[in-house]
Design goal:
239 residues; 13 strands; Glucose Oxidase, domain 1; globular; single chain
């Protein structure tokens, strides 16, 4: 058994930010008629939750963008509890930078190995530290469609990002942004975990451990029948 399990999920509470334009915000309530409360003498605590399929740390199933894609309850669970390959891109990113395949040149061999091992490929930008600040968090770096296609060609089945999205997030009152990375990845059957919180790996994860296959990640969704995604409790551990 692992000595330590690292929590990679953002907290879900009434302060949790949502993707710009998402009509469903997380809320939690046990008010009269919408739950039970021990303080009110009702015998138990029970809360009503309102949340979207993409609230907080979550996973996108291919059906999120692909009409014939797999729904979240159809994902292969063995691809969601798998070896972890982490690319630490923090030194090359900046706000709203579009990352091309050439930017990932130092990691091309590791991406190829991740595909061979059927690992979950996690792309760390460092943006999760801004999760509580919508204005800064939406200024994330993102990946070009070509970059996403080349990652998909490696054979990985799941990727994760510590941002809203692998695509550019729109600015306030700005135009919609293209979903090229989503279309490339989900179109290849690759599920996408978003809003990962990776700070817990600091001082523990090393590239040497990663290359030796010593890390495992779990991104299991709720068994939501016929839906496009699900919140997840993402965790990782060193074997």
């Amino acid at each position: 058994m692992p000595a330590t399990i690292i929590d990679l999920a953002q907290p879900l509470n009434d302060a949790t930010i949502s993707y710009p334009g998402d009509p469903v915000r997380f809320s939690c309530c046990n008010s009269l008629g919408e739950g039970f409360s021990l303080e009110r003498g009702e015998g138990a605590n029970l809360h009503k939750l309102t949340l979207g399929t993409h609230s907080g740390t979550h996973i996108d199933a291919p059906w999120h963008f692909i009409a014939e894609g797999a729904k979240v309850d159809e994902l292969d669970l063995s691809s969601l509890v798998a070896p972890l390959t982490l690319l630490d891109l923090r030194e090359i990113v900046e706000p709203r930078k579009k990352l091309e395949w050439s930017d990932l040149a130092p990691w091309h061999a590791r991406i190829a190995r991740a595909g061979e091992r059927k690992a979950v490929l996690v792309l760390r930008t460092g943006w999760s530290v801004f999760f509580a600040d919508l204005d800064r968090y939406r200024g994330q770096p993102f990946f070009s469609g070509d970059c996403a296609k080349r990652i998909a060609a490696s054979g990985v089945r799941v990727i994760g990002v510590d941002t809203f999205s692998p695509d550019e997030t729109p600015l306030p009152n700005g135009p919609d942004t293209p979903a090229d990375a989503h279309l490339a990845l989900l179109g290849a059957g690759i599920a996408i975990a978003e809003n990962l919180r990776l700070e817990g790996l600091d001082d523990i994860w090393t590239p040497e451990d990663d290359d030796a296959g010593k890390w495992t990640i779990s991104l299991l969704p709720l068994r939501l029948t016929g839906l496009d995604g699900s919140p997840i409790r993402a965790v990782a551990w060193r074997d």
